[in-house]
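Please predict the structure of the following assembly.
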Amino acid sequence: MLREPIAERSDNIIAGLPDSNALERVGKWMALHDISESRVVRASRLSGGAIQENWHLEMDDGKSYVLRTDADAAIPTSCTREEEFYRYRLAFEQGARVARPEGFCLDPNVIGKPFFILEFVSGITAGHLLARNDADVPDRHALASELGQLLGVVHRTPASHARAVFGAAPHSAASASIEHIRRQLDGLAVPHPALELCLRELEVRLGQATDAVFSHGDYRTGNYMVDNGRVSAILDWEFSGWGHPNEDLGWFTAPCWRFGRPEMGGGGIGPLQSFLDGYQEATGRAVHPSELVDWQALAHVKWAVIALHQEQRHVSGAQRSLELALSGRLVSELTLEAMNLLEIR
Amino acid sequence: MNAEEKMVDLLNVAHSTLTNEVVPSLSKQDRYNSLMVANAIRIAARYFHSTQERHATAPANALLDKSAIVRGIRAGQFDDGAAMRTVLVANLRNCLIQQLQVDNPRVLENLQNSPQVR
C-alpha cells in the first residue's frame, strides 16, 4: 500500500544491489537460464513499496527487464518472492495481462537474496494522474471495460490450476477474509469497536458466501499500468490467492480507491457500469452495482486495518515515515464510510 | 491568548508559511513531502483546538470499555435488533465524527449525509 508508481524512476544509482560484481553475476545467471545472452549494463532502482525492491535492468542489446527482490528493511511480508513468482506465472499462463515472469533465482551467491526477473513494461500507474488526466485516458469507458475484462480473465482460471499454486480453496473465502482482518485487528494495541461492528455485520451478511476464484487481492487503480490509454500490465500479485470474486470487484470499485473522482465508480478512472460490462464479457456473469455495496464496505474495513498497521509500523519505530504516520489519519473516514455503506446508523 | 491558544496559533502560522511561502517554489517530490508536513501540522492544530473545546466535557471515548464491547460485538450481542445496538452505534458514530473533525473535516458533511448505493 501507499506505493508510488513502479515504472517511475526514483534515482539512477546502483546502490542496493550488494556489490559491484552483482550485475555481472545477474547477467550470467540470466544467460544460464536462457533469459538473455546480453550483459547487464545498467541497473536503476524503480520506486516502489517498502516491502520489495524493483530494479530496471538495461541490457547491452537494448532490451530491459525488471529484477524484483525483498527490500532490506525487516518488514513482515505477505508471501515470499518465490511464492510471488509462481503467482505471476499462474496469472501469465491464464492469459492475464501481466509482465512475463522470466525466471526465479534462489541462489544467494548472485545478489545475496532471492529475486525474480520480469519483462519490463512501461506505463503510468499513479492513480491521481489516471483519474484526472484525460490525455492519459482518452476513452474512460474503454479503459474501465478493459479493466473489468482483465479481472474476469483472472477470475475464470480453472480451479485445478489455482489449486496447484494455492492448495485447496477455503470453504468460504469471504469468511476467511473476514477472519484474517479480525486477526490483524487482534495484532493492534488498541481495540477498534467501530471496525469490529462493521466486520461482524459483514460476517452475518457475507459469511455464507462460498464462491472462490483465483483473485488478485489488491486490484485497484495504482496497481496497473496504462500506456496509450490501455492497460499494459497488472502489477503486484503478492496478495493473490483464493477469494470471493466480489471481493476484488468491491476493492476496485470502493469509494476509497477513486482518487478524488467519486462519480467514477470504476476505480476513479471510468464508469462503474463499463467496468461491470467488461467483467461480464469475460466471465458471463452479470453483476448489479447493489451486489457490491457490502463488498465495498469490506474494502473500507480492510484498508482501515492496513492503515492502522502502517501507522503502527511508524509508531513502533520499525520504519519512521510521515507517510505511514498519516495513514492513521485515514481510519476515521474509512470507518464512517463503511458504516454508511452498511447502513449502520 | 492563553498558552494552549498560542500553541495552536503557532501551528497555524507554521502551516500558512509552509503552504504560501515555501511550497510554491519546490520541486515535485519536495512539494509532495511538504504538503504531507503541512497536512500533519493542520491535523495537530485541529487536535489541540478540539481538546481545548472538550475540556469541559468528558470525551465520548471515555464512556466505553472498548475491549468488553469488542468481545460483545464478536459474540453477536450487538447484532441488528439487539437492545443495546442503537446506543452503541450512536456512540461509535459520534466518536468517529469527533475524530474526523480532527483528521479531515472537509469530508465530514458528505459522510454524515452519504447516500447508500454508489
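Chain A touches chain B at residues 182, 190-194, 196-197, 200-201, 204, 255, 262, 265, 289-290, 293, 296, 322-323, 325-326, 329-333, 335-337, 339-341, 343-345 (CB under 8 Å). The domain at 22-119 of chain A is CATH 3.30.200.20 (Phosphorylase Kinase; domain 1).
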